[in-house]
User: What shape does this take?
Amino acid sequence: MIDWRLELRAVKGRAYPRIIGAWREPSWVLFDIFLPLLGIAAFIFYYRSMGAPEVFTGFVVLGGAMTAFWLNVLWSMATQFYWEKETGNLQLYLLAPMSRMSVLAGMALGGMFFTTVRAASTFVLGFFIFGVALQVSNILGLVAVFLITLIALYGMGMMFASLYMLYGRGAYNVSSLAQEPIYLVSGFYFPVKELGFWVAAGASIVPITLGLDAMRQLLFSESSVNPFLPWTIELLINCFLAVFFILLARRSLHYMEYLGKREGRLTLRWQ
Amino acid sequence: MAVRDHLRTIKYAAWLGWQMDSNWTNPYLFIAYSLVKPIAATLILVFMYLVIFSSALANPAVFSYMYIGNAFYMYVAQVLFGLVMVIYEDREHYQTLKQVYIAPISFYMYIIGRAIPKIILTTIGILITLAFGVVFLSLPIDLLTISWMLLAAAMLLGLLCICMIGIALAGIALLTAKHGSGINEGIAGAFYLFCGVVFPITFLPAWAQSIGLAIPITYWLEIVRRAVLSGSGVPNISGLEAYSNSEIFLLLLFSSLLFFVISIAIFRYADYLARKKGKLDMTTTY
Assistant: This one.
């Protein structure tokens, strides 16, 4: 029988350091909000040097802000159990009586909060500095798309976390490899439809692809967005992906823990 | 310390760096991993260009400016990031920094040695990126018309300058927690913006142009573009076209010398502070 109070305490306990950490080290404000703006500014000036329509400035600010979530999923979700193993915390999680899914859920909630602060700040600053023209057509739809995208994305992160649990430095390198290629195929800085139907369809397995496409439709003038699919369909697909990834995370977590115990790799460090 | 000792330090540090970076898998897979990332970064810019212009041939001046600038900028990003990570990895992950420090070698040479595998891998990435551009995107580079002497001189000075900046950042890393790697990302991001890596600096506001003109990377990229596109007939749109090659080279030389002095000063002071405050073996796992 599930002890829900225990599980909720575990979720809260694991989310706590991530939420409180956001306020304990003010230098992160510089690293995570102002510094990403430099890259965003470079891409905006690049578009301007080509005489691109102003709406592309908005695409870059939105995509640049959303990179925070992808980076957080890669480095603070997917590789987290690898870091925990390296620092000796993983064995403590496994000894404790709560479900490992609660630990992952806590990591996800804390990460979502911390990263939303960062991404929203980047977006708002970018909005004012570069004069982004928004045309919000459906605020409730936008909130729904954003939240479902986050749930699906962090569900994917939970699944990766379990898969990475046994890896050594390979985990670090896989995450490093998944940055720029995903920025490319998910259309962080341009409409994903420009890559062609099949690339866009393949990239849709990463929830942020459809989430970004839907948000562009809801934030900017429809005539300039060149959507891949109608945003309602994209929302439905991301709902499915959210459930799919969370269920898959649960299964893979059980399997990888079993495998790790059998092979004695759960406490192996410096691989 | 004899030059031979320094060279031996560089050689073994380079070997160590290669092993630490690559021995988690087989070398071929590692090289493939190392190449996918920078090529994907370049393709992002290519698709941004194609969204606006539909064809690489539509505006060869803009396309070649962006493509070559971004390709060579890989050195800046990889070396700066790599050298800061050397400090964090040695100090916190492998916890060997203090042993390296008390060994009878120059720590400065050790860091330069650790940069070498990153420079070699980045060079391979750049060559593949440029070849891809020539074959598939009609990038107007002709091996017969490249100004090889100018390119070689610029590369030598430019790489030394990048290593010097990397060493200064490595010095700062001795004092910061491991998540302080945002500093080098920020510096690399600032260079990407102010040095006109993918767009001419004339598109920046005047104050930002002044910053760009004080950074050697701006002049280095300008010389590299001139050398690589020499004889291609592509017009120069950098905003620095009024300067001759020798003038740009002199500007690169003087700004690099200035950065060299600043880099040594930063590293020595950071090294002194790190010893004084006992930070050489700190672990920041929080």
